[in-house]
Prior knowledge:
By secondary structure, this protein is mostly beta strands. Strands 1, 3, 4, 47, 50 and 52 form a six-stranded antiparallel beta sheet that branches.
Amino acid sequence: MGxxxxxxxxxxxxxxxxxxxxxxxxxxxxxxxxxxxxxxxYEANDTGGLRRVGGYERFDGRTxxxxxxxxxxxxTGTVAVGNTVTGAVSGATGYVVATSGGKMILTKVxxxxxxxxxxxxxxxxxxxxxxxxxxxxxxxTSYEHAVAKNATADVYRDDIASxxxxxxxxxxxxxxxxxxxxxxxxxxAAGTACxxxxxxxxxxxxVTLFHEISFTAxxxxxxxxxxxxxxxxxxxxxxxRVVLESGAWGADAAGRLIIxxxxxTFDATHDLQVASATQATASSLATxxxxxxxxxxxxxxxNFGSEVATERMWGADxxxxxxxxDGTTYVPLSTAFTTDTPxxxxxxxxxxxxSFIGSIGHSGLNRPYEWTAFVGADEIGIGYExxxxxxxxxxxxxxVSEKNIFQITGHSTTDFQIERVSPSSGGLAYTVRExxxxxxxxxxxxxxxxxxxxxxxxxSQATVSRAIQPLIDAMELVVVASSVHGAKNQYxxxxxxxxxxxxxxxxxxxxxxxxxxxxxxxxxYPINIFNTIQCDDDTVYICDDVGMVYQVDKGSSFDGAEIExxxxxxxxxxxxxxxxxxxxxxxxxxxxxxxxxxxxxxxxSYGDPRISQHLVQTITMQGLGGYWDIATWGEFFYDSRVVSxxxxxxxxxxxxxxxxxxxxxxxxxxxxxxxxxIHYIPRRIKR
Length: 687
């Protein structure tokens, strides 16, 4: 029977949750409708949905561009972008970053403008008057707010330079964060040495390196902070660090002193005194500590002492001796290895571990300066070049090479045991990271996750990147660094050309059991990357090839450049691959952080060119919706929704439908798209 005249056709409604990330290898009919087949600069959320990647912005310790404050002021008169206005009564000043429609946006405000309609001057001449007071974050809509924040960020961005700008060259070679301060390494302009730079409220400041002098016959005691005087030469110096490398004080202590504030010239033979009492004998001249150029710095923070203040940064770079650094005193470490230029470093179970070509070594227990067998230091041959260390469950340390993974269990040389965890999987240099109770790395087989199990070696290894094998093959040629983002359950891999892969971990239920899964996506930065700095507080910095340092997941842009992002959903046949359907509407579930603009393009029947192109539709959302009893004034725009559901009318037939989502913006703070509601009318079987 036909449909009764006047009856409305039955409209089917289907919700498609975006989940699973990017799939580039599955056949079209086998791809889950929640996955995407093409994507750039979106990342998977661990509970589902796709989030536009965060921006990144340059860093030197000053006010972050995205954290800068602006004031919106109504005015009469004439003013231009770049002017500094001064209140005629208050003397307060502000820098103009934008003007439009009788309003100006000010930043870098000093003082407080007068409450009356105060005149303001530029260059000593009165050119206008405020109408009321300038209001902090005072724009009325989220779009105006986003534009003002972006213009303000541009001003602060221009203040930030690379470490040693003008006196340094090449990439920033890595670094670390200690006590909330970021320290980085960069070669000098002549390429003869590498300098350390410290982030401060005034930008990068060069760290002074001290001198070192060796001693023997330590029959007394020298401690940090002592002033030593040498007999005969009369030279004096302040001791910044005592590096005990063998023996014991009061008997036969030997090692080095890191010294500064030197007067006179030390020789290599005479006694060293403290308060006129002989404590040791010099066995070398006092030489300036220098760092050779060309390294790639890897660091770890660890406390070998018993007080909070004794936590230090430890590092290696493949060109120099390993080092200890407390933010002031840089201490080169001397080991027993012939070629004392370790590549990788780890602190584990009270030992400092270093990797060399074909072997690894560890210091004595809680004696990171001492590398003799007498205190339990040792060298362990593994037959492969170590590419990184990692913590493994069971208090084990993982020793990784390109094709093998070993573990060492125990607490000292008396009970250390080494065994091979994997004879076929491994990781490339600078990609080995600890992740969610195990380890993760990028190797010749792709992204490999190592976790505890009841299988061989008490660990299991699984390649979790098969769905993006084409990206893996390309990344293998350019991979240079990695990072972990604990708050997002993410592992990221970076290529030297700015390309990257993001693996987000989530959990899915199969039957009665939950299992860990990975949702792969890709990103691309418009810079060339040399290294990353992974910090204990979950912040990550990237170092580019021309020396700039950037903080990732910060701001609304790629350091001022627009973020271009898109994804293409898998074609969804609604469990009926041969049925022709009349598509009528698509509703997107979007959560914007603030102002967001998206372009939506539906496609049908696998993009069949015989089907006319559907109109591309642009949707905008204000974001930052709030609840009256919860939200704080000034943090939300009350004319917007917490979750937006833009509806897109469709008039097209096909056996399946997919959607392309595209955005390009430098003012969008980010948005998350959770799913898509599709309205369609089933028609007939395609013959």
